[in-house]
Amino acid sequence: MNGFRKGLFAIIIAIALPIAQADAAGSTFDGTWNVRISSSSETCGNGATVAIGINNGQIASSSAAVTASGRVADAGSINVTLSTGVKHAVGSGRLSGTSGSGTWRGTMCSGTWTAERM
């Protein structure tokens, strides 16, 4: 029975270790980020800054006025949706270290975004 327990323990460790490593890699970008949204169109406004939070690779809003959702991959590629009222925009890009950038598109507007970790 002792050999069975050792074997079972080894199997549990072999399964759990890669899962723990995947969680650690996904959390590389965890924290609060300031995202500056810009548009080249005057009708879309001059831009805005939104705070988002990332926890275990999942994006959530840090603001009551804007809803954020999406995911950051281990390598830093990001896909996010921002919503406020009936307006929404979908963005994509890349985070690296403490900064990032990408593009976004809404119903009638589009532009770029940059991000800095706070």
From TrEMBL:
<keyword id="KW-0732">Signal</keyword>
<protein>
    <recommendedName>
        <fullName>Heme utilization protein</fullName>
    </recommendedName>
</protein>
<feature type="signal peptide">
    <location>
        <begin position="1"/>
        <end position="24"/>
    </location>
</feature>
